[in-house]
Amino acid sequence: MSDPQIEIRIWMKENLEALGHGSKGRLAAALGVRPDAITRMLNTESEGKEVREIKAHELGAIARFFGKEPPGGDPTAIRFVPIAGLAGAGPDTEVHYATGDGNFGEIEAPKDAASTAEALEVRGNSMYGIAGDGYIIFYEDKEAPRPEHMGHMCVCFLEDDRVLVKIPHPGREPGLFNLESINAPMMLDVPVRYFAVVTDIKTRYAAQKFARRNPHHPIEDVTTSGRRVAS
Predict the structure, then answer these.
(1) For the chain, what is the domain count?
(2) CB–CB of 149/71 below 8 Å?
(3) pTM more than 0.85
(4) Same domain, 122 and 174
């Protein structure tokens, strides 16, 4: 029977050897286990020695001890996505983006979020019924309009450079879309460049708990036209 953790055991051995004498004891102390438990973690079945399973929370602690990501990634790592703009800060649920290189901080990504995921923070009550003030909207996979986008809440990147949060429907001609929202009239036959599907929404309570603001990239200004400003 093959050992599914063989690569992790080899990775541990290499890093302990690089750290030198006493590193095994320090790792044991960091994990809160006896040094012989580390020895069994390092053993492989091919050596005919007793092997100990490396649990997920232990692997996360080992990764932090070495300061390196283990083979297959750290199962305990928390991934964050940027809060790229403010939704509903203007009429028609416009999205206002920070100028320069700034953003509004970051927030823990939903489980299984794509690498393209970003977030918007809702301001005001223009999206009431979908998301209230302080809620966080997650979206991903910004791409050209497809039939699969129709009827699903999306971040809509219009041809006139406005960005809105709406539910698209086919318009009267190809390339034109009717954009629906709960608290505003339907926008008819609007040319849209891209859609990005809204994949998750966090409440204000959850947003306050999981968001962290970004002091390293201060916001220079916020656009008031709903247009994304190139950095």
Answers:
(1) 2
(2) no
(3) no
(4) yes
